[in-house]
Amino acid sequence: MEITQSKRSSRRDGKQAILDSALELFTHQGYKETSVEDLRKAAGFKSKASLYAHFDSKEAVADALSMQILQKIEHQILTDYANAGSEPLKILIAVIRGFTQWGLNHSQEYKFRFIRAQQDRLIRGQFDYTTGQFSMAYTKMLALLQHLRQQYPMRHIADTALISMVIALIDKTVIDRESFGNISLEEQVDQVLELCMGIFFREPIQLS
User: Is there a contact between 51 and 39 (Cβ–Cβ < 8 Å)?
Assistant: First the structure.
């Protein structure tokens, strides 16, 4: 039993080492420029065969890394959602704050996920909310916007489009953070939150 658990732990550690190395290589030298041999060396494997025991291709590594990041983002959203109480506006504010902060604090992961998601949209014609990968958080957000429409002057735009525009804004924030100037992370999050509220609502909304 101990041997089996040790092997499982070693396998998990090896898989994570590949994903950690892939994140560094993909974001610094590019996906196309990164070879399986590069991944092998960075992850500390003695042979390609040992790496292939975890992933059968570089594409599989990228897919797994993208999914891992997406799961972290969804966990952040669901946690903020659960901890915000029951008032819909407070939940929306908490989710946007948490999502933006996570992206700014994990910019390397966020940028890779952004690039990968854009590839999926262009090449496969798939969006997160149509693949089922982002189902729990996305479904909750759609339901939340329906509740908000009953109480606040929401824009007459489809909820899916509103969410897409807000995500695009946060994407741009993380990718081009320097454009906000020399301000603190908290100030930047506040500014992004204000912009997001302008996307969701037709009239100014009191945030506190």
Answer: yes
79 contacts 85 by C-beta, under 8 angstroms: no
Cα R_g (the chain), whole angstroms: 20
What does the pLDDT look like over 91-123, one tens digit per residue? Answer: 999 999 999 999 999 999 998 888 877 766 655
Per the DSSP assignment, residues forming a β-bridge with 201 are 154
Confidence of residue 32 (pLDDT cuts 50, 70, 90): confident
Confidence of residue 208 (pLDDT cuts 50, 70, 90): low
Nearest to 145, CA basis, from 206, 188, 91, 187: 91
Amino acid at 92: L
Q: Of 135, 136, 153, which Cα lies nearest the Cα of 205?
A: 153
Phi, psi of 154 (to 5 degrees): -70, 150
Q: Cβ neighbours of residue 51 under 8 Å, at least 6 residues apart?
A: 18, 36, 39, 40, 43, 45
Taken as a whole, the chain contains a residue count of 208
In this structure, are residues 154 and 148 in contact, taking their beta carbons and an 8 Å threshold?
A: yes
